[in-house]
Amino acid sequence: MAAIIQGIGTATALNSTNSLDTNKTLFANSRRSLSDRKGRFFMVRSDGCLSYGLNGHGGRAEKLITNAVAAKEDTAVAYTSSKPGHELLLFEALREGLEEEMDRDPTVCVMGEDVGHYGGSYKVTKGLAPKYGDLRVLDTPIAENSFTGMGIGAAMTGLRPVVEGMNMGFLLLAFNQISNNCGMLHYTSGGQFKIPIVIRGPGGVGRQLGAEHSQRLESYFQSIPGIQMVACSTPYNAKGLMKAAIRSDNPVILFEHVLLYNLKERIPDEEYVLNLEEAEMVRPGEHVTILTYSRMRYHVMQAAKTLVNKGYDPEVIDIRSLKPFDLYTIRNSVKKTHRVLIVEECMRTGGIGASLTAAITENFHDYLDAPIVCLSSQDVPTPYAGTLENWTVVQPPQIVTAVDQLCQ
Amino acid sequence: MALSTNRTVNQLLKPLTAAISATRCLSSDSTSIITVESSLPFTSHKIDPPSRAVETSPNELMTFFKDMAEMRRMEIAADSLYKAKLIRGFCHLYDGQEAVAVGMEAAITKKDCIITAYRDHCIYLARGGGLYESFAELMGRKDGCSKGKGGSMHFYKKESGFYGGHGIVGAQVPLGIGLSFAQKYSKEEHVTFAMYGDGAANQGQLFEGLNMAALWDLPAILVCENNHYGMGTAEWRAAKSPAYYKRGDYVPGLKVDGMDALAVKQACKFAKEHALKNGPIILEMDTYRYHGHSMSDPGSTYRTRDEISGVRQERDPIERIRKLILAHDVATEKELKDIEKEKRKVVDEAIAKAKESPMPDPSDLFTNVYVKGFGVEVFGPDRKEVRATLP
């Protein structure tokens, strides 16, 4: 990972200990950029070589294309292929991605509760067990701690397991394995072991599922060093992120959402792999940057219709990558609009929005014309009653009101 | 208790050595087979125990002695280094339990995997790790086996199948089950030894892992190093059933005298054959640690000094091998003393070299957090847009 040690003004040598300015430099997110007024900075990559750049590219010959998918919500993905593409639901897209990777690489295997014979509690692994066998699509007993540990142990030897948590909330039982072993083994072994595991499952607030089954685990996992977190929101990015996560040599936690499994979209026939660290530009705009991910993307787009009628031009970005944040895309957007609204489903305290607010304020303070507004769920266990549940989660009218206040 | 039964050990050994006349060997013929009986018969659970007669050779006995002498010296040296504040944090010492490490190593290959908890210094040595790398790691230097970033509890050696080195009690057992899963998946004919202590034997994840291993016939061997104290609590205070080898219920188990390297070797060989054919098996090694749980524990508040010195006199693993070597004329008393002196020298040299070695670079703080390069080549559906492979 590109570890960025910033030397403001004059270059500071890598080995001198005074170059570590702890207030600013120990920043674990990639491609950190500064306003041009601050001048140049040096970027140290994890292999220790120093590279120099203005935008965080480090002088690469191939340009990083950041606007991965600039598509409006209701039109098909923009691509210039001649094949018509095929329509499918999000869980089918996940399955397609998984199946393609399992065909391509024999070390990819799946393990989880009900993934084999039952076909997966959300049908993501349906049909895979008859095709690949019981050992490769493994039905585990209900023992999250140990089967997650088992997946990590298998990953240490070179297999690429995909561990499914039936609901992300159940992975709390495996927190020790995910935090201490999955995240840290590459570091504590001095680089000897890599853990190319994917941990995936549905989370988020569903329809009256109750407090324990409506948890947002991204806020608990976000400070574990060594893991990457991504959240998918459309069939297109679900398939692409699934493939990228499986191919990545780092442990990746892929957050799906219980209510998004039945989204339908037309996706390309050709193979594609998305970038794990990149955000998606959902709707370009001028007035305000709205950062969101997973299910809240749809609430935001619904609010966007109202906002457009009111005369605003919101720029909606689906951040997708929850760890590390794609500060490059966010920087470009904030530089343009100067106002930021974060809409998330995590709780107010310690959620992804809280970290994102801190990251943006720390880095792009000069660009902002107004304080960042973060709309998140309430700090309460999710109630069962439907009306109460709706009040804990951010709703489109609240988004519209927030933009109104922000743009005054 | 283990102590009372082992008073018969010395009585057993003497008549045995006299009886083994046919296989008496000359010290020059180092590949001849010596058959020794293990100190105690194996007790078993749901399986036929292996025979007490263990085949060994003079070479092997000398290797055992040398390796155990080196391990013992290393642990004692680590004790002094800790008190001199060159080793910080936690330091869990293995002296007294060396027989388990060398016996296991004699029965298996480097392709078999071993995973253990935090009392891992000697197992790292047994797997081929170097003294210099060990001490450098303990002192937090760059040349350590984990580049100074792991510490005492995180020794690893991937090329020899040593998977560590884990700080959280019991968490290594599911990892070990995963290693055996990968071995079965890749159809290798190798096994995994997942080691844990009597304290960890009460962890739920152990039984979860055992259930899975038994369900899918994974080649996993769970080794309980029962040194009778889980941290500061005696086993009778912590476990309703201290017969750890029986805890597997449907999984067969074997109880072994863990202070007898040859018995350990026999048991591990037996377990490996069993695991490759029939799935998991539990080995309980009845052993003892002379030091406390870690360097911050004096080790004498929950047990008497008499008990510790009693075990040292009656059951010490190095003494047992020494007696065997002398009884079979494999080497003389002086040669053995010379070996011990040499090991002391080797250990001191490694420490001196490690003390001089450099600390890690500040930039090493950020290395190895992620695998270098997020490593994925990304591309759009038409492959016309060239996307980068991220640094």
Automatic annotation (TrEMBL), chain A:
> Where is the Transketolase-like pyrimidine-binding domain positioned along the sequence?
88-263
Q: Which UniProt keywords apply?
A: Chloroplast, Metal-binding, Oxidoreductase, Plastid, Potassium, Pyruvate, Thiamine pyrophosphate, Transit peptide
Q: Which domain of life is it from?
A: Eukaryota
* Location within or outside the cell: Plastid, Chloroplast
| Enzyme Commission designation | 1.2.4.1
- Gene Ontology molecular function terms on file: metal ion binding; pyruvate dehydrogenase (acetyl-transferring) activity
Q: Which Pfam families does this entry report, sorted A to Z?
A: Transket_pyr (PF02779), Transketolase_C (PF02780)
What protein name is recorded for this chain?
A: pyruvate dehydrogenase (acetyl-transferring)
UniProtKB/TrEMBL annotation, chain B:
Q: What is its EC number?
A: 1.2.4.1
Cofactor field:
thiamine diphosphate
Q: Which reaction does it catalyse?
A: N(6)-[(R)-lipoyl]-L-lysyl-[protein] + pyruvate + H(+) = N(6)-[(R)-S(8)-acetyldihydrolipoyl]-L-lysyl-[protein] + CO2
Looking at the keywords, is Cell inner membrane present? no
- Please describe the quaternary structure of this protein: Tetramer of 2 alpha and 2 beta subunits.
Q: Its function?
A: The pyruvate dehydrogenase complex catalyzes the overall conversion of pyruvate to acetyl-CoA and CO(2). It contains multiple copies of three enzymatic components: pyruvate dehydrogenase (E1), dihydrolipoamide acetyltransferase (E2) and lipoamide dehydrogenase (E3).
Report what the protein is called: Pyruvate dehydrogenase E1 component subunit alpha
Which taxonomic lineage is given here? Eukaryota, Viridiplantae, Streptophyta, Embryophyta, Tracheophyta
